[in-house]
Amino acid sequence: MDITRDQIDDLNAIVKVAITKEDYSDKVDKILTDYRKTANIPGFRKGHVPMGLVKKQYGKAVLVDEVNKLLQDSLNKYLTEEKLDVLGNPLPKAQDDLDWDAEDFSFEFELGLAPAFDVDLKTKKAITQYHIIADDKMIDEQVERIAKQYGKLVSQDEVTEESEVTGVFKNEERELENEVTLTLDKVKGKRNLNKFVGAKAGDTLELKTKGLFNDDHDLINFLKVEHDEAHDLDIEVTFTIKEANLREAAELNQELFDKLFREGVVTSEEEMRAKIKEDAEKQFAQQADQRLLNDITEHLVENTKFDLPAEFLTKWIQATGENNLTDEQASEEYAKSEKGLRYQLIEGKIINNNDLQVSYDELKEFAKKYVRMQMAQFGQQDPDEEVLENISGRVLSNQEEAKRLSEQIMSEKLVNLYKEKANLKTKEVTYENFVKEVYE
């Protein structure tokens, strides 16, 4: 067997694989001999079928199968030994004149090669690293929400602006009928609000869905309509009130503190506020890190310049796609995927250059932390270590889940690397201002 490479340019090459009879004949003969022992052909006893008949009936199929196996194995070995960084997979060149009755064969494959480039994390323009704080306003609102959440409901004779109203939305023509409980801070505009305020149990309100709520997405839950329909929904509905209640805030005492944070962890309102601030800012830090990762990713893709074997990759997409694509469709698919491919190459370069790896021990500890957080949501604050070991083991036995957790760890490692090496400027903001600045 002989394998050679013609380097067309830095990004494209042709690999030629020449296979001779000596490369495959022993394997083919052995398989046909085994076939002969087990072949069940009318007119012959098992094991006594003439080899010529076996070759005539099975020879070409076995030859094709073995040559293809040999071709694939030798090509993979060659790419590994030559340390060729291939994009996609080798594409076999069409051979309309391939003669399987010949003894020697020659095959050609097109290769798309990864470009050589450098990544500079020290950007000229500093990238913003957000430090999100929980301000007094946010903490006050959170304390108020908690007090109401753990408070008790007091029945009201009529609806007030502070009421929790239970009733049934209905539209007979659309066959909509859904019982909900809502607070009036969701209702948009004085005109709509005034229809609720002062109403009593048994009253039926006539409403229009357009402009009824501050957030059109509330229509999804309140009327059980699809997301795409909610934004432009403009129909008349009735709302029949079943009851109105006022949620009386719970007292901020030790009983409430113990429910929220486990017994004895918090012993005063001041400590409660400090704990709310600490927990909120931990969550904010994750959002800030994700934003930093996104911003640096965008910057690196835009500013790390290198060429790609676009023509090869377009052909590869066309050849390997589930659906038959025209040249134009394949070009469109490549254009959609190019940015993602560029970042994969950049990220791979950063990971290799900085020797970032995820060990099994790291993955295991991360899985246990993930399980612990999940259990805490259901009130299990201190799970037994053996329970954590068993559940995290089951989590990691799922390859998809293990891959997802491994990617999360690598993202954390990348963020920490960027914080250490990238040109960053820190900006302290409240969560409200962070949302306005970043997402609006």
UniProtKB/TrEMBL annotation:
InterPro entries: Trig_fac, Trigger_fac_C, Trigger_fac_C_sf, Trigger_fac_ribosome-bd_bac, Trigger_fac_ribosome-bd_sf, Trigger_fact/SurA_dom_sf
Main location: cytoplasm
Enzymatic reactions: [protein]-peptidylproline (omega=180) = [protein]-peptidylproline (omega=0)
Gene3D superfamilies: Trigger factor ribosome-binding domain, Trigger factor, C-terminal domain
Enzyme class: isomerase
A single GO molecular function term of this UniProt record: peptidyl-prolyl cis-trans isomerase activity
Record bears the keyword Transferase: no
EC number: 5.2.1.8
SUPFAM superfamilies per the UniProt record, alphabetical: Triger factor/SurA peptide-binding domain-like, Trigger factor ribosome-binding domain
Domain Trigger factor C-terminal: 270-387
Cellular localization per UniProt: Cytoplasm
Domain annotation Trigger factor ribosome-binding bacterial: ranges: 1-146
UniProt keyword list: Chaperone, Isomerase, Rotamase
Domain of life of the native organism: Bacteria
Family, per entry: Belongs to the FKBP-type PPIase family. Tig subfamily.
NCBIfam families, per the entry: tig (TIGR00115)
Protein name as it appears in the record: Trigger factor
Species assigned in the record: Joostella atrarenae
